[in-house]
Amino acid sequence: VDHSAAIKEYSRSSADQEEPLPHELRPLPVLSMTMDYLVTQIMDQGEGNYRDWYDFVWNRTRGIRKDITQQHLCDPETVSLIEKCTRFHIHCAHHLCQEPMMSFDAKINNENMTKCLQSLKEMYQDLATKEVYCPNEAEFRQYNVLLKLNDGDILR
Questions:
Q1: CB–CB of 21/45 below 8 Å?
Q2: Which residues of 129-149 are buried (b: 16+ CB within 10 A; e: fewer)?
Q3: Where does the record place the region Disordered (predicted)?
């Protein structure tokens, strides 16, 4: 096992579980390094066994998002991490849509994409109150519009 390449696995919170201690949460630079590793070393390796690939990347990006939420991080670098998570789900929605449900569940992927987009919307709003604007905001707001085309509440 290459411990230098190990990535923290996502673990679901439960009611009887205490909040993590500060040393159990990865700081922003570590989260950035983890995402860079996923993007450059893992995401290009999906050919053939999509289920294991998708489950691994989704689990690890979900863990990154959980660490961000638990630390209440909100700055342009954090936004960039959530944008990368969102792009992963967008990529999968397009490239894996023909895969059988046992390999790729489009509904779960869309739910996670929606959660990412909601987090981004909130972060963009919080940063705008500090007069900090993110260069990709328009792009990700458009993805939200595209997701809601059939809902009738596009502008919410």
A1: no
A2: eeeeebeebeebeebbeebee
A3: 1-24
| Sequential pLDDT tens for the chain (156 residues) | 565 666 777 766 655 566 777 778 999 999 999 999 999 998 887 676 788 889 999 999 999 999 999 999 999 999 999 999 999 999 999 999 898 888 899 999 999 999 999 999 999 999 999 999 999 999 999 999 998 888 776 666
Would you identify the CATH topology of the domain 25-147? 1.25.40
Question: Mapped to the 3 state alphabet, what secondary structure does 28-78 carry?
Answer: HHHHHHHHHHHHHHHHHHCCCCHHHHHHHHHHHHHHHHHHHHHHCCCCHHH
Q: How far apart are CA 105 and CA 84, in angstroms?
A: 20
Calpha distance 104→126 (Å, rounded): 34
